[in-house]
Amino acid sequence: MLLKLRGGLDSFFVTLLLGVLIAAFAIWGIGPGMLAGNTQSVATVGDTTVPTAQYANAVQRRAQQLQAQFGGQFTADRIIQMMQLDRQVLQQMIQEAAIAENTRELGIRITDAQLAAELLQFDAFKAPDGSFSQQMMAQALNQANMTQKELYIGLRREAASNQLLGSITQGAPVPRVLAERLYTWQAERRRATMINFAASDITDVAEPTEEELQAYYEDSKSNYMTPERRSYNYIMLTPAQFVDEVEIKEEDLLQAYDYRRSEYVRDESRDLQLVSFADKEAADAFIERVAAGEDFIALGAELTEFSAEELELGANTKADLQTDFDSTTADAVFALGEGELSAPIEGLAGWNVFRIKSITAGEEQTLEDVRADLEASLKAEHAVDLMFDFLPDLEDAIAEDGTLTAAATKLNVPLATVSEVDGRGQGPDGSPKVTLQEEGTVLSEAFRTELGIEPELKDLDPTDSTKGVFFVEVTEIKDPAERSFEDVRSEIRSAWIAQRRQEKAGEIAEAAKARLEAGEEAEAIALDLGGTSYDAKNVSRTAEGTSGLSANIRRLIFDLGVGQIDAERAADGNGYVVVRVNDITPGDPVRDAAKVDALHAELKAQFGSELFEQYQAKLLDTYSPEINNSLVNQLFRRDAEE
């Protein structure tokens, strides 16, 4: 709620002060009996509790936000289960409770003066002249469904926590000199001369003899084994298999259309500019000057404490204005044409003058326009439910019969069989037997499953179980075996020649190093030995600006001193690269003071973040939170899982 009031702050209180207990419980159908006994809190950290009401509302609010992002395809309960939101929110609130408990033990209190200062940070509480407005605060709290008492309690806790965390990080500051030294090292640039000798360019390699090929084969037999091959059966369930069983009623379509109205109906909106004054006389004078030719925004910024950017309200519908202002304001603004100014309109904290910057007409897609797509979407959504409804029957059949074949026959579901494939999904003749992404997921699981293991339920997508599930059983495993010399002769020959070319490239690189150290020009050496010479300028420690260099070559350049020479195998294995460092330019923290400041701020933030994580871990270890798991499970129906 405080997030909404601040217009975009951290989420500390979003999970703390959310809604009303009765409203949240009504959603899940939880009866009044749950309020008895120890159900008032889901967790206790020392003497600080995580109230059930706040926790339940926090989870539900987050689920509703995600539900809107997903276009209403899943219910809030389904999202909570899929993403384990109840566990995520609980962990966050326990951490916050631990901090609150620590501030209480340390006796950290926030004075009324500090609380008043916190209130002044809310733009929603300010009048047009920038002063605090009790009326504006009351209006904002009403819109956020929050009482003044809840706000004050939340602010005091947040300020106390910030005070404590600030004292922790200030106790061991990061000196700026550390950032300067790090920047000097990070921003260092180097210039180097390089000669590349590609093994693939070397052609004067003699054909291997039969004895050499036989010897190479004997030394590298393990590289020429047949791959492990597996045969397996699997049953796959996807929502698509159940779509034809779904019947969508007309009332379902109407309800879904109304729920997704924002997708199909776009109300007329107006790009607005707004200047507010404390009295009507000032507003009238402003309108006269604009009518005389002065710029609305420039003059508004001159006459008020608001910047030009703050006077731009952006696109607003009539409903937006009714919510943020009132119906009178909305009617007056939407009666204006493009470019027109409103007369002064009295508001809660002064007189407002609006200008219509532009008008965007509304659009509407009727139910008939979207019927086909909406029906397909609903069928897909309900098909997910049917898939999960069918799943227990399949699990029971597998457990009863022990094999997928028997279960598939009993329930009349498709059974797929894959024979003698390797880990890439290819058969013995090299042809692909596994081509689809879903089949590849099953293949990977089959190669992780041992022979004789009872099939287990697996998700096609570990991040989204609604995409489908599968069971796989391995029926045969063929271990790798040696391939005969004749079967791999051509592969052996190619590998032998490639190795000899690489070895020769290394010999040439060593010769180039010696000649470069003796003072010969790199271009002449490259021309004579069949390489390519070039200069690498402004080389950084990272790939920034030098993406043409591989990481190992860049690392070599920064390992060498000025004038030093060495060679490194090319990153792709094709030859060698000879490197000579010509120049080193350290970073300049004086010239780049702004960048050092940014680095310093980043280091302090990282240090503070790491310190905060250690502090949280210490608090959780000290207070040993007690969690009412049975209540959490009852709230979010996890009984079966636990």
Class derived from helix and strand content: alpha+beta
What is the rounded Rg? 35 Å
User: Could you give the order of strands across the largest sheet?
Assistant: 14-3-16-15
Question: What integer is the average pLDDT?
Answer: 85
Which residue ranges are poorly predicted, with pLDDT under 50 across at least 5 consecutive positions?
1-38
The number of helical elements comes to 24
Q: For the terminal residues, how far apart are their CA atoms? A: 32 Å
For the secondary structure, the number of strands is 17
State the assembly state of the protein chains.
single chain
Descriptive notes:
The chain has 642 residues and is an alpha+beta fold. 49% of the residues lie in helices and 16% in strands. It has 24 helices and 17 strands. The strands form 5 sheets. It has a 4-stranded antiparallel beta sheet. Strands 11-4-13-12 form a 4-stranded antiparallel beta sheet, with helices on both faces. Strand 1 and strand 2 form a beta hairpin. The two termini are 32 Å apart. Mean pLDDT is 85; it is low at 1-38.
List the helices and strands and how they pair.
Layout: H1 2-6, H2 21-28, E1 41-45, E2 48-51, H3 52-69, H4 76-83, H5 85-106, H6 112-119, H7 134-143, H8 148-170, H9 176-186, E3 189-197, H10 210-219, E4 229-237, H11 250-259, H12 261-264, E5 265-266, E6 269-277, H13 280-291, H14 296-303, E7 312-317, H15 318-324, H16 327-333, E8 345-347, E9 350-360, E10 363-364, H17 367-401, H18 404-411, E11 416-421, H19 437-446, E12 458-459, E13 469-478, H20 485-517, H21 522-529, E14 532-539, H22 551-559, E15 565-569, E16 576-585, H23 593-623, E17 626-627, H24 629-635
Antiparallel strand pairs: 1-2, 1-17, 3-14, 3-16, 4-11, 4-13, 5-10, 6-7, 6-9, 8-9, 12-13, 15-16
Helix pairs in contact: 2-3, 3-4, 3-5, 5-23, 6-8, 9-23, 10-20, 11-17, 15-16, 17-18, 20-21
